[in-house]
Design goal:
alpha+beta, four-stranded antiparallel β-sheet, Alpha-Beta Plaits, globular, about 25% helix, about 90 residues
């Protein structure tokens, strides 16, 4: 099954840019990366301190609270602002 985790952070300033890139490089080397299809980062078109990390997965099951990698990313991004973390399963 395909599913996606979306981790969005709203930060009061832009001090997260270099940290996020380093964090994502380390996340890609995680044990879970076998099931990871892709990892993308988006910046809000109008609010440049908002970023969204999308983890695309293909696995036999979905983790109810999110993957270990997603949970680690969400926890690490909390120091930069408000974080929203959700998981979505592809509908066919």
């Amino acid at each position: 099954m395909k599913w996606i985790e979306i981790i969005t952070v709203r930060s009061p300033n832009n001090n997260h840019d270099s940290f996020v890139n380093d964090l994502l490089k380390h996340a890609a080397k995680s044990d879970e990366s076998d099931n990871l299809i892709s990892m993308d980062i988006y910046r809000n078109a109008w609010i440049n301190t908002d970023i969204s990390v999308h983890l695309h997965w293909k696995s036999t099951r979905t983790e109810q609270q999110g993957s270990t990698m997603g949970l680690r990313l969400a926890r690490a991004l909390k120091e930069f602002g408000l974080v929203n973390h959700s998981a979505w399963v592809e509908e066919r």
